[in-house]
Design goal:
Length: 264
């Protein structure tokens, strides 16, 4: 993860040899949610608060690079989504996401312009993130709910660090010469199926689970399954989303001759 973060900074700030326009820093506030085995397709189900910070390097009026650090809460509950009847699994997690994003503005735009002061835009990039699914204060990964701690079927504990491909769209609006506002909605397609701790099969005989066995109870809360029965769908990975508003403050970079004409 450390090398990934360093690479992102090099990518974002390595463009300063180009004729720079401006550099913005700001804050993000909004909501986050997840899609996966417990919530296969209900957008905004169990939406939770999210916040963060960002830095944007505007290469020109149509293209920008953004580095963001967002933190969001996500959750899933079979009782609410009813994705699988009789399973009764649930989780909550905190997502810490750092992303390097390329933005493309549909119209010419820069903060402070009197003419090019708004635009819709699309974005895509790369993300690294951490997660740790829990029930209450209990880490589901540490509990090994699919037999990872026992090596069932060759399984091992999964990593709490993974990568994702972020993409989405938004709308930018210049408030003043220095302040910019944007609304954005984006999804992160991840490379893990364990954000919700659900992926493969059960590993215990449900009827034989000792109620004092915390890992067993978390694995099969209904005590109604057999080893090898499907618990999740390992063929599809999980997703998460950030939706919200950013407000940024613009700084000039380089000589004045390299800056955009504020009269535009």
């Amino acid at each position: 993860m450390k090398k990934f973060i360093i690479s992102i900074f090099v990518l974002l700030f390595g463009f300063q040899g180009l004729q720079s326009q401006d550099f913005e820093v700001g804050l993000f506030g909004g909501a986050s949610y997840y899609l996966g085995d417990i919530n296969p397709g209900l957008h905004y189900s169990q939406t939770k608060p999210a916040f963060g910070m960002l830095a944007r390097y505007n290469m020109n009026t149509r293209m920008a690079l953004k580095l963001s650090l967002y933190r969001g809460n996500i959750a899933g509950d079979d009782v609410i989504t009813k994705a699988v009847e009789g399973r009764d699994l649930m989780f909550k997690s905190v997502i810490n996401d750092i992303s390097a994003i390329f933005e493309f503005n549909f119209f010419p735009y820069f903060t402070g312009s009197q003419r090019n002061y708004f635009t819709p835009y699309i974005f895509a990039g790369v993300s690294g993130f951490t997660y740790n699914p829990k029930v209450g204060d209990i880490s589901l990964r540490d509990a090994g709910t699919e037999g990872q701690n026992e090596g069932y079927d060759g399984r091992k504990p999964y990593s709490k660090i993974s990568f994702a491909v972020p993409f989405g769209f938004g709308f930018k609006y210049s408030i003043t010469k220095k302040l910019g506002l944007a609304f954005e909605w984006g999804l992160r397609k991840t490379f893990t199926d364990y954000i919700d701790d659900v992926s493969t099969t059960y590993y215990l005989v449900g009827a034989d689970i000792d109620r004092s066995n915390q890992a067993g109870v978390l694995s099969d809360p209904t005590f109604d399954h057999e080893p090898g029965m499907q618990r999740g769908n390992s063929e599809t990975n999980d997703w998460y989303s950030f939706t919200g508003i950013t407000i940024t403050y613009k700084f000039r970079l380089g000589s004045r001759s390299h800056c955009l004409d504020q009269r535009q």
